[in-house]
Design brief:
The chain is built from seven helices and no strands. The protein has 178 residues and is mainly alpha-helical. The chain folds into two domains: 95 residues, no CATH class; 64 residues, Arc Repressor Mutant, subunit A. Helix 1 runs antiparallel to helix 2 and helix 5 packs across helix 7. The radius of gyration is 24 Å and the shape is elongated. The termini are far apart.
């Protein structure tokens, strides 16, 4: 009886070792896939995501840090995502969430020499908007996302995105025409 139990134990051990080996190999493959997906996203989207974050937090250094942190979080979350195509959506969501909690800097009084006065006035007016309105306008108008994707990035309903955008446009018009 003890010999039979020992054989069963050895079979289980061999089975668990071989399964563990396959799981380790599958884990390495999934890590390589995650690395590849994040690398491709980084090359294709980094600059536009930094510009998006700058519009949300008003500071290039903070924006770059937020984008880097969002890429790290996306890499870690890739196993939980349904497919690699949803990685960009997850990345934007994480970026918007991190931008909300980032420390805000006061608006800079100096503007770059190459910037146009009109765009500086629009940016200054955008900085005065509440965060929700600002996020909606940046995602819809600057990035050109459909309402559905903007809603996913902000983690609110499409209707709420439309309301934030409408209020933001009205506020911007009031600020720019005053």
């Amino acid at each position: 009886m003890a010999a039979a139990t020992a054989r069963i134990g050895q079979r289980r051990l061999r089975l668990s070792l071989s399964t563990g080996h396959h799981e380790a190999a599958a884990g390495a493959d999934s890590r390589q896939d995650a690395d590849r997906v994040v690398r491709e996203l980084y090359l294709a989207q980094y600059r536009s995501l930094v510009r998006l974050a700058v519009l949300l937090v008003d500071d290039v250094g903070t924006a770059e840090q937020i984008v880097q942190d969002s890429f790290v979080a996306t890499h870690a979350a890739l196993r939980r995502l349904r497919n690699a195509d949803s990685a960009l959506s997850y990345l934007r969501q994480d970026l918007v969430r991190r931008s909300r909690s980032a420390p805000r800097r006061p608006a800079r009084s100096q503007q770059p020499e190459e910037s146009k006065p009109e765009s500086s006035a629009v940016l200054a007016a955008m900085r005065q908007l509440p965060h929700g309105q600002r996020e909606a306008l940046v995602l819809l108008l600057y990035l050109g996302l459909p309402e559905e994707q903007a809603a996913a990035a902000m983690r609110i309903s499409r209707r709420a995105v439309r309301e934030h955008a409408a209020r933001g446009r009205a506020a911007l018009q009031g600020l720019l025409c005053a």
